[in-house]
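Table S4 entry, Minor tail protein.
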Amino acid sequence: MSEAIDSIRNTVDVPYQIYTTGTPAERFTETTVRSISAFQTLTITYDYDVSEYDSPPPVVYATTMPANTSRVRFSPTTSGTFGIHGSIESTTERDGATLRVTFRNLSSSACFIVTTSGLPSLSIWSQRLAANSPARLSTRRYDTTSRTRYGAQVFQVPSTPWIQTLGTAGRIADYLLSVAAQPLPVLGDIEILPDPRITLGDLVRVVDDVGATLDTTAWVVGIRTSGDNTGRVRQILTLRATTSPGAPTDTGLFPDPAIDPAARDPLVREGVRVP
């Protein structure tokens, strides 16, 4: 058994991005007054840029026009004299770079998408970010015990827009430290009955109730298979434990004193642990 020192990460940096909403802006408008026949459906599509944010569904109004949001008005006349509610069912969908707005006329008469002044009433607004948003920040967490023993071993989490708060970034860093701050035991030369189903990355359970009294899970990180002219096949695995037993405490060990007392300080400067 050995320790996977190379796998230690005791200092974790997690970047995160804080998004601040800005003022919404009108994105799409219609140029002609559209009509929807009785019990019929009208679908209108718009092309988005993949970097744009979703637009809210249009708010239906009859008299007072909502401000700074998607909106639509229906009327039984082309002039828009009267506004109606409840006769039109709408669905707004975003599929990649396409926005699809569907209106279903549930009434027995035609209706028109028109304002009180006879102009097209459908207006689609989209949310915008504030200036200099998102703010890109980073948080660092570290394990003092591991840093003292092994030195600073830094892991930089790749930046992603899905991490948006300090709390989320901190929880990710804490979890990574919990599994990487201490070296994972490596079990070498574990000979098993040959099994062609085992591949690198498999999770296996190791049980030894005779020698080391071991019962743990481990990843398969190495496979050696060999055979000879007698038909004998051997398969030997190298395993890395999924958890660490913690830092060694050197309990019950009493190192011999240095033969040369003056050698202690140079050894300490070189990082050698001396009594």
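Helices lie at 144-150, 166-180, 264-269.
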